[in-house]
Amino acid sequence: MSESVTSTQIDKPAPETTDALIKLNNISMKRGDEVILERINLTVSRNEIVTLIGPNGAGKSTLIKIALKLIKPDQGSVVAAENLNIGYVPQSVNLDESLPVSVQRFLEISGTKNSIALMDALHHVGADKLLGKSLRDISGGEMRRVLLARALLNEPDLLILDEPTSGVDISGQTALYALIQWIRDTFHCGVLLVSHNLHIVMAATDRVVCLNRHLCCSGTPQDVQQHPEFVSLFGLGDAGELGIYRHHHDHEHDLHGDVHENVHGAEPGDEPAHHNNVETKEHDHG
Q: Which end of the chain has fewer CB atoms surrounding its CB within 10 Å, N or C?
């Protein structure tokens, strides 16, 4: 593991967008007689954000665990790029509140005690002032940023985020999705995330995969929101009905959601590049 995320690494040219980082092939899984996942195929490439959506019990978190190789599917395979570094942000972290663990100590547990690397990671997520604070004293939005900082310490090629805005208010959610886009654009990594926040995430992702134990549909947000299976699950078939909120990057929100000028170097009005070239498709339930 490298000691620091350096400016040289940040300024390196972007790799090819078509560089596949991970492929899940024909993934199926049962729990007893209950089908959890049925013949799921999914690819995440460098420089793209792929969002898994679906109702509760759709198998989203299970698919994430399979991608991380934390559990093994009954059928199918996971193929990762050679020497793939993965940064993972779980939906929640169980902490013993009786133990006064600082943000610094929490980050050090990931494997590095290099103070410059820790401060770099916190700076990248806009949480520089949290290093000496106790985890008990920070907000939900601050905790999500600390978890992102911990994931960045591994200099990941792929970020896997399970409900990255869980427990965060609406302004904080918007800020975190903007931050995830900035991380993708700056570090040229791929991002696979699970989300329930349709109104915000649809404007902050390149590709949407709608899951309900099988793959319902997949494609750009504009295409997926009009797909019949999406409509049957969420009742939102028209772009106007969905009311997608598009966040402009001429400013940033701080840890509490307040607006400030952009500090990450993007020009006013800049939008992350979106690769809207994936067609929707239906799953053969055969």
A: C
